[in-house]
Amino acid sequence: MHPLKTFNQRYLRSTLTVLIVATSLLVLGPRAWAHSCPLEMNKIDQRLLQKPPLSPEKLEEVRRLRAEGERLHRQEKHGEAMLVLGSAKKILGID
Predict the structure, then answer these.
(1) Which among 41, 46, 68, 72 could disulfide-bond with 77, CB atoms 3.0 to 4.6 Å apart, if both were Cys?
(2) Rounded Cα distance, 57 and 62, in Å
(3) Distance from CA of residue 53 to its chain's centroid?
(4) Over residues 4-16, mean pLDDT
């Protein structure tokens, strides 16, 4: 077999593999985020039940961020929701 033909076949195969993996991540990625949002909201809720030692202003900010995260989740904007929920978790000291 000609070496150039072998190279072209390997190049085509590796390119197709990369495209398949990238497409899978784009299609399945948001679904993974979608399942994470409720878990993150639950972590925030559980911490709020413990009455963390925060000022009333900070507690209100956490509640606002948590509500915003839920709203974004319901709108299927999971990446944005995770960022907002992450901000609330940071204020609460949740890893």
Answers:
(1) 72
(2) 9
(3) 28
(4) 69
H/E segment holding residue 50: none
Tell me the CB-side half-sphere exposure of residue 84, using CA atoms within 13 A: 21
Contact 85, 40 (CB under 8 A): yes
Question: For residues 9 and 57, what is the distance between their CA atoms, to the nearest angstrom?
Answer: 62
- pLDDT exceeding 90 applies to what percent of the chain? 56
Structure tokens at 78: 């999971």
Q: Which residues contact 14 (CB under 8 A, 6 or more apart)?
A: none
Segment 53-75, tens digit of pLDDT: 999 999 999 999 999 999 999 99
Q: Taking a C-beta distance cutoff of 8 angstroms, is the pair 37, 73 a contact?
A: yes
Those residues with Cβ within 8 angstroms of residue 56's Cβ, 6 or more apart along the chain or in another chain: none
Question: What pTM, to 2 d.p., does this model score?
Answer: 0.65
Q: Locate 63 and state its tokens.
A: 């509640």
More confident residue, 1 or 75: 75
